Amino acid sequence: MEPITTDTPCFFTQQLFLIGTQNADGSPHFAPISWISFTGGPPCCLVISIDGNTRKKQTALNIERTGLLSATVVTADMLPYVEQHNDATMRQGANAAWDVLPGNTLNVPLLRDAVWSYECEVIQTVPIGGCTTYFAAFRQVNVRQDIQALDFIDLRKVDPVIYAPWHYFTVGRHLGQIGDFAL
What we know:
By secondary structure, the chain is mostly beta strands. Helix content is about 15%, strand content about 40%. The chain has one domain: Pnp Oxidase, Chain A (Roll), CATH 2.30.110.10.
């Protein structure tokens, strides 16, 4: 591994999301992004940072034009579709299909049978360094029925993909809940 310094734009791990936006012609556009966090609100927001050092990315252009986006939790079964939408990994002629649906509340693309997705409206934009950070308020949270029926958000059932630079992982075992390890 290359040395990590304070000048290295790095992170330890991040959950991977597929951000959905509408192109100007109305077609759906998706991009995998892992620089995502949340605010507790109100309003509760998704916080998304998009690197724009080399060029303005289509996702950022679409967000700036419409103010809308969807964010789908990437699960292990979605990785072929995700990589088809990543500039670094897409292959000519690859066709990992996934049914795209209109949002339930907003004019954003959603993926059929996704475990968890958000429909969001940008309420604040903050440019910093070579990135732009969007604060996007939740307007709809879509959770698949089998996951909604669980007693708690069991990540073993959701099977989210965790990203660490250039590598994908899934969640292992459940260790307990907050308070189980208090002395």
